[in-house]
Fold each of these.
Amino acid sequence: MSPRSEPLRLGVLASGRGSNLQSIIDAIEAGRLPARLAVVVSDREQAPALGRAARHGAPALSVSPKDHGDRAAYDRALRQTLHAHGVELVCLAGFLRILGPELIRPLAGRVMNIHPSLLPAFPGLDAQRQALDWGVRVTGATVHFVDEGVDTGPIIVQEAVAVLAGDTAETLSERILAVEHRLYPRAIRLYAEERLRIVGRRVHIDPAEARPPA
Ligand code: GAR
């Protein structure tokens, strides 16, 4: 149950295939997520994520780093695009660029990311490969708020995934991805329901309001 009268306006940033974007679209279309896609932006013109957005009827744009002088200019361009579409929450979904203070500071507490490990273990690229190389028995997925570090912001939800004997980066990634697809819509839903409060490094999740007796 959402206390909001209007669906939450999401801006999704994605660089690649966009399966997490698809899980968000599916949750919206199934009525499990009180949100709408205000815009999907990619840094790559050919990203399949843009096609998924367009099929859902959402504005899909590419904003190329090549068209902007430096990282700060690129971040400002992204910020302007998100602002122009009235975005309330930004979701990074396989967006493979590090965002700087030009974007993150004005949007503090309003940018989320999904990462394929149990942070703070294995931040950065190839988290599943890092987990295999380290020999951990358990890894997983994390949704967190984005701060100015790399995968360092306050953690919203996490779920563990066992590493199995004989796993490759591909088989492990596939099982983590199935978890990601449940976890991200759940975290966004908590935000849409205004149940997340950031207190220092911690994110408090307010309990769901009790339903009135039937
Ligand atoms: C996902 O596994 C996501 O967690 C990961 O990229 C993949 C994107 O897949 N993100 C990172 O590693 C960020 N550091 P998708 O394009 O199918 O959603």
Amino acid sequence: MTGYKGPERVLSGIQTSGEMHLGNYLGAIKKFVALQHERQCLYFLADMHAITVWQDPERLRAQTFHIVATYLACGIDPKVATVFHQSGVHAHAELAWIFNCIARLGWLDRMTQFKDKAGKDKERASVGLYTYPVLQAADILVYKATHVPVGEDQKQHLELSRDIAGKFNHDYDKPDFFPLPEPLIQGPGARIMSLRDGSKKMSKSDASENASIFLRDDADAIARKIKKATTDPEVLPSEAKGLEGRPEAANLVGIYAALSGKTSDEVLAEFGGKGFGVFKPALAELVVEKIGPIGEELRRLEADPGHLQSVLREGARRAAAIADETVREVKEIVGFVG
Ligand code: TYM
């Protein structure tokens, strides 16, 4: 338990490890945009997380600019929300070390994302990949963030952040020092699946480029990918219940719902009884309407990396003012000589 009484604060981040896709948009960025006018928000680019697997330096820089451009193109206003890069604020790494000494090996051994990413040959995975969720806890708690908007795949990492916060508060007898951050996961976009395989999540690292709709895709690419999306031969049911056991159909209906702001039941009230020959073109039209303008703005912003870099530097300066103070307090609590 924590008796944290500080201000409500929202924080989230995206790894700079590839192209932004519809899952990142619906699971995370769309929520970031909505929250920025409700609470104090900090949105960062997890470049230190990205290097837990090999990244070519030039690509890493380009991907960092790609994601900050995506944030802005989707409507995050850097004057309202603080937008920065993780490596630009030293305090993340400093707090992560202290948290490495709080987290238990048994906790990290349970992390399913490490198992997925390390694969069979875990002896060859980087140590950073293993302690990845500890750095994530530091990202959140260095700002004493109370709310973290993420997709469903981050749920276990958020639970670990809560465990670390709770254990720190308990071990140092400071029950109200760190908040236990709440994940904000709900909504139809929380788990967008691959267009080729309804049992796999849409992912930056999918080998098939037809599996994901990227935010930079133009109208032709979007329409082609939706046309090729794997489906089944049945017509759509008239209620969401009827989608059970039909993961590909459920995914396409979920995408339609998330983009239109409707529930799956409302979408099916309109399309129930119709086949994919009718539903896919309607979905393609909706995706192009919502994503097309983002792609155009993204390309415009990416053409001016100097501006993007200045946004990140200013954001990092504002973020560090909060984070440095937390690290100062933590060092004192732990017993380091100031
Ligand atoms: P990352 O970069 O894999 O994904 C960024 C965000 O997008 C969401 N997401 C999805 N949502 C729905 N459907 C999908 N197919 C899908 N794919 C990705 C993710 O849930 C996430 O919200 N570890 C994090 C980055 C991170 C972070 C943090 C997040 C580092 N530190 C602190 C929050 C707080 C990650 O790798 O996300």
